[in-house]
Amino acid sequence: MRFSALRVLREGLTGNKGWTPHWRDPQPKAEYDAIIIGGGGHGLSTAYYLAKEHGLTNVAVLEKGYIGGGNVGRNTTIVRANYGLPGNSEFYSHSLKLWEGLEEDLNYNVMHSQRGQLMLCHSDGQRDAFARRGNQMIAQGDDAELLDREGVRRLVPYLDFDNTRFPIYGGLMHARGGTARHDAVAWGYARGADQRGVDLIQQCEVTGIDIENGVVKGVQTTRGAIRAKKVGVVVAGRSSQVAAMAGMRLPIESHVLQAFVTEGLKPVIDHVISFGMGHFYISQSDKGGLVFGGDLDFYSSYASRGNLPMAEHVMEAGMTLMPMIGKAKVLRSWGGIMDMTPDGSPIIDKTETEGLFLNCGWCYGGFKAVPGSGNSFAHLMATGNHHAPAAKYRLDRFRTGVDLMDEEATGSQHNLH
Ligand SMILES: Cc1cc2nc3c(=O)[nH]c(=O)nc-3n(C[C@H](O)[C@H](O)[C@H](O)COP(=O)(O)OP(=O)(O)OC[C@H]3O[C@@H](n4cnc5c(N)ncnc54)[C@H](O)[C@@H]3O)c2cc1C
Q1: In this predicted structure, what is the pLDDT of residue 305?
Q2: Residue 319's Cα: distance from chain center in Å?
Q3: Whose CB among 3, 46, 249, 363 lies 3.0–4.6 Å from 374's, allowing a Cys bridge?
Q4: Cα(356) to centroid of ligand 1, in Å?
Q5: Residues lining ligand 1, CB < 6 A?
Q6: pTM tops 0.90, yes or no
């Protein structure tokens, strides 16, 4: 089933009776060429590119819950390519290019909206840092524009420019940044993978990884044992637990990140805006809700909900930046489990077990990475070679200390990245 304007019109006129399910509900087979553990954004996009670009279709995605139930359906949907360090810079640039062709590629409306991302600065030092970051983005081939205070005011006059503690000095505008509808991204990749023959198996938790003489042989699941020549672990906040099934101890801590949405309002916030003096970022969804978030809850946890002190902190940051937000009523909040690395950058690598691959450490920025991550991880799993844009995402950098990518320059404490 392909989507088109004509199809939508025809279905609308004939009672919407012709739509079929987006993907099958197959029983697990006894053996696959490749198994992906985790049906989040990264797992689904990996399966999609394995099938599409490498002709590997005897593939299963094993998901313990339901497609889109993890972080891929819980994030604040920001998509951008504004990283500064070699390694991250080329990877996120690659990912953003894939985003720009994604809807045509998947034949699916993921509501990718390049409405622009504006990072605000509140001191001379921060403005200098943004100038440097903007130059790094331009050198990478992406876009950036440094705005002065009046330039920012023209775009977003409703901010509190003269806040006594945090006056706005200017901002860095990334016009190709924006948002996408998070769960539609999962559904689009799931549908595309299924159409190419990938089995998406939900309610199937992996409980063990079978290894013989250093070679992966398959997995144990709540629906029985499944053999496989290759296994990719792509389980975000559960990475440490699943890697432990293969005897690995990862340099990852799992932390909670919360997000919030208000009641639907008329269009008021056109861009994605990031406050420079606190962890606060906001955009407006197509339904009208103001979607915003802040920092991690500062303790490690596997609970997908946060607690009130961070909620209060985020609301305070919002009120400081845009006092008018105080009139909006918060409708709901939720949390997700972040796989935090010591340098804040991810891992896409082989492991010491032959045939076992690892994709994790996306911290709180992995939604925008979904296309690039799947694309590069599929390349690694299919060919055994690292894909150029993700070539620096090696696991052993945490053992050797070489090629660490500490984008925020905050040191090695997981929850500060
Ligand atoms: C509140 C919040 C806001 C965020 N905001 C942004 C943002 O604005 N921009 C951005 O780029 N990123 C953002 N992120 C981060 C981003 O959502 C994540 O980095 C990314 O979604 C993680 O990858 P994933 O989609 O594959 O994870 P998930 O969707 O969590 O997928 C992992 C899957 O693995 C499954 N799984 C776990 N264990 C097993 C097992 N044993 N067997 C089988 N399946 C298993 C889980 O059920 C889950 O479905 C945010 C995250 C949160 C929580």
Answers
A1: 84
A2: 27
A3: 46
A4: 20
A5: 37-43, 62-65, 69-72, 74-78, 205-206, 234-236, 238, 242, 257-259, 293, 336, 362, 364-368
A6: yes
